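Form P-L/3: holo structure prediction, ligand uridine-diphosphate-N-acetylglucosamine.
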Amino acid sequence: MDKLHIRGGQTLGGVLKVSGAKNAALPILAATLLTGEKTNIHNLPHLHDITTMMELLGCLGAGLTVDERLSIEIDGSSVTKLVAPYELVKTMRASILVLGPLLARFGAAEVSFPGGCAIGSRPVDLHLKGLEAMGASIAIEGGFIKATCPGGLRGAEITMETVTVGGTENLLMAATLASGRTTIRNAAREPEVVDLAQCLIAMGAKISGAGTSTIEIDGVPALSGADYTVMPDRIEAGTYLVAVAATGGKLRLEGAVPHHLDIVLDKLKESGASITTGANWIELDMEGRRPRAVGITTAPYPGFPTDMQAQFTALNTVAEGVGRVTETVFENRLIQTHEMNRMGADILIEGNTAIVTGRDKLTGAPVMASDLRASASLVIAGLVAGGETLVDRIYHIDRGYECIEEKLQQLGADIRRLPS
Ligand code: UD1
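OUTPUT (holo model):
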C-alpha cells in the first residue's frame, strides 16, 4: 500500500487549479444511464472513485470512450445488465446512485446493499422509501436491493425525513422519467445537486427548484444525450485553502466558485486569513500569521460541510486558542483526532464534539488514514508538524484528491509518495 512521506514545517504558497468535483461527477455519470443516446462529460477528476463508477457503467453494458484529458463519452444504448455487483459497491458507496436511473429507464435494478463505513452506518433507507413512494417494489435478498416497477415510476410527493445528498440525487434522477410530477421536500441544497440537475436539464429533463429545499420534476418520456462540464470541487479547494492557512502561507486558487465556499471562507477569515475573490478565483493570505482557533458545527449546505470538518480540526491543532468542532451529519467522523493526538495535538472528545486546544507545534509521526477527509487532515497535520510524518493507507486520499502530492509540491511542500 502506498504511503505519503511528509517533512513538515514549510510555509506553503503558490497558484493551483481546482479539479472537477468528485461528488458532482459521480451522480452525473450515473445519470447518463437515463438515456439511450451518447453523453459527453468533461472536467472529470482523475480519481479512483471516478474509475470505479466508470467500471460500474461498463459492467452494466454502457460503451465508454475516454480521451486523454478525461472527458468521457458514454453510450447508453448498449446497457442491458441491471445489476451493480458487490465487488464494486463495497469499494464505493456512491454506486447506489445507479439505482434510481436504472429503475426509471428499465423498470428493474439490483444493487448490492452498501455496508457501513469508517464514518458511520450510512443507511440508504430514504433512497428506498422515496422510490417506493414512486411505485417501486423493493426487496432485500441475498445482500442485494432488488427493485422493480414494471409499469414505470410515477410522480409522487416526497418529504425527506433527513437532508440526504445521495437520496435527493437518486430520487431526482428517477423522477425525470416518472409519469407526472414529483415534488421532493426537505431536499439537499448542495451545489452538487444543482450541478446534477443542470446536467439533467441539458438532457431534456424538466426540473425546477434545485438548490432550494423543494425540487419539482415533471417527468418526460425519454432523455437525450448532452454535453456537460462538471463543476469545480469545492472540498478540494477548501482543503488546499486550509492547508496553506495552517502553514501561514499564501494561495491563489483558479477555477473555484467562491460562493460555494461562503461559510468555509468566513471561517478562514475568522482564523486570521485575508481572503479576496473574483468570479472564478480565490486568494488567501495568512501573511505568516499563526491561525486563530475557530469553532465549527457541521450541517447540510449552506451550513458548514462535514467534508471540511477534519481539515479545520487539523488547523485548530496548531492555532491560537481553543476550537470546538461539532459533527452533526455523520457519527464516528472524529476518528482522525486520535491520530492527531499521536502527533502531539491536544484534542478531547466529548460526544460528537472535539475540543481542540492549539499547540505551538505538532511532531511528525507514522499515522494511519481511516477515511477520505480524515486522510487529508492528517496530511495537513504532517505539513505543519516538525519532523517526518508517514501517512499510511492513502488509497483513501486517492479516492478523492487528484495528484495530492504533486499539487502540494507545487506549493513548496516536502511530500512524496512511497510506493508499496
Ligand atoms: C454525500 C457526499 C459525502 C458528504 C455527504 C454529506 C457524495 C458521493 N458523497 O454523501 O462526501 O459527506 O454527502 O454532505 O456525494 N441518511 C439516512 N438515510 C438515507 C441516507 C442518508 O439516514 O437513506 C443519513 C446519513 O446516515 C447521514 C445523513 O443522512 O447521517 C447525510 O448523508 P447523505 O447526505 O446521504 O450522504 P451521502 O449522500 O452518502
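COMMENT: The radius of gyration is 21 Å.
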